[in-house]
């Protein structure tokens, strides 16, 4: 009903935003306006000024995801019953048990072993999960550098724990890490400057340079957290070429006592694509991620549940507990149970039942239903890539193949070449990065596209020039319809203006 009030355009009209802005009361009213008046105000003046990541099928900015109808329904149930999922109280509410089931189902969907990945919790998003990842990494690397009976950061604080362990610096090594990783480094007291890019140069900057990684890990009195981008937000590409490379990185992390974290906010879901030649290269890029110590994923992107929903997984539930335990609150104890109280393994105490929409989506669609949605998204991204590739007016960017780099590392990729030879753009997941050939058009390209208000894209920079980025993450993808719309808009904007 609410959505009927909105248009299906990717952006509202400028006039609707102006109307909405003009309608905002200047300050807190002394006497309330009343629920009815405010309800009408919301529906008729504010809703028309909202943008369309959910209502439109063609909102391709950032990686926003949409909202599946069952997720929307479940989210209304969450609000209607306002469960506080903080302490596991199985005699009083089923909510923590459902949350646990949702996390288990998610782990299974991702092809991870649910016995191995027992540290798991829902977060507000991937940024929140990256904060958990670096906090766990920080705790673990200092422990690994300490005498076995030494207390960790959770107890002693960063400064004291580092001094006792003889650590002078903690660094975060990554290739094209998401901006939220820098924020997370600041939040957990490592500092944004601690994040070092060890990408493989201008050809494949999203890939970790293994030689450089080894040299950094060897530094004396330095503890390291390694973060794999899976995938990278500008290009959709992955920091590793597959299982063998992940194993190399794992071995290096073990040797030098580093923590291995994966930021897989959206790219992680490439693990759920069908086992067919069409997706073999992508599946290879995300294989081996199970060797990590911890993984970040987003719910509100690819799972198409409402904001705020992400998740954090770790194989070291003890580390998670040492960081996040809510100590000395006996009244919050849930006794011994296989389901941990969420307040001991994450940031918040009181928190929303954000697991329910995830539970609802996974139960409604199952493994095959999710794979079908993800398949449509990849096919649309590849269809758009084909159009851009064939067009003399556009350049498709970040297309370097993985094989040369992996071959250097002595990794055999011949099985991949056999299976995906006939697949166009085998490494394209859900992101398409491109620019216009004509510099003048290119500088204005994002504005021109978004000014049509029929589709929305984000701007970025690539190789020093403005570039345009399409991210396909809604369940609403209809390949034929959307390919026609997107190519139509891309043709139209070449002709000048919108
Ligand atoms: C979107 C994204 C984030 C941040 O996620 P939020 O859910 O917006 O907090 C982090 N890492 C990657 C790779 C992302 O794509």
Give a description of the structure:
With 498 residues, this protein is α/β, with parallel strands linked by helices. The chain folds into three domains: 1-50, no CATH class; 77-359, Aspartate Aminotransferase, domain 2 (3-Layer(aba) Sandwich); 368-494, Aspartate Aminotransferase, domain 1, CATH 3.90.1150. It has helices at residues 14-23, 35-46, 69-81, 95-109, 126-145, 153-156, 158-165, 179-187, 210-217, 243-255, 280-285, 317-324, 355-390, 403-408, 414-420, 439-451, 479-494, and strands at residues 119-123, 169-174, 195-197, 199-200, 204-208, 222-229, 259-263, 294-298, 310-314, 394-396, 431-436, 458-462, 465-471. The strands form three sheets. The chain has a seven-stranded mixed β-sheet, sandwiched between helices. Helix 5 (126-145) packs parallel to helix 7, helix 5 (126-145) crosses helix 12 and helix 16 (439-451) packs across helix 17. The longest helix is centred in the C-terminal third of the chain and has 36 residues, at 355-390. The protein is globular, with a radius of gyration of 24 Å. Mean pLDDT is 93; it is low at 403-411. The chain binds pyridoxal-5'-phosphate. The site of pyridoxal-5'-phosphate has 12 residues, from helix 5.
Percent helix, as a range, is 40-55%
Count of alpha/pi helices: 17
Residue share in β-strands: 5-15%
Count of distinct structural domains: 3
Tell me the overall shape.
globular
Number of strands: 13
Stretches where pLDDT is under 50 for at least 5 consecutive residues are: 403-411
Rg on CA atoms, Å? 24 Å
- Main β-sheet description: 7 strands, mixed
What is the strand arrangement across the widest sheet? 1-9-8-7-6-2-3
Given helix and strand content, the structural type is alpha/beta
Give the mean pLDDT.
93
| Bound small-molecule species | pyridoxal-5'-phosphate
Report the CATH topology name of the largest domain. Answer: Aspartate Aminotransferase, domain 2
CATH architecture label name of the largest domain: 3-Layer(aba) Sandwich
CATH class descriptor of the largest domain: Alpha Beta
Secondary-structure element order, N to C: HHHHEHHHEHEEEHEHEHEEHHEHHEHEEH
CATH superfamily of the largest domain: Type I PLP-dependent aspartate aminotransferase-like (Major domain)
Q: How far is it from the N-terminal to the C-terminal residue, by CA?
A: 31 Å
Family: Belongs to the group II decarboxylase family.
Keywords: Lyase, Pyridoxal phosphate
Protein name: Aminotransferase class V domain-containing protein
GO molecular function, one term: carboxy-lyase activity
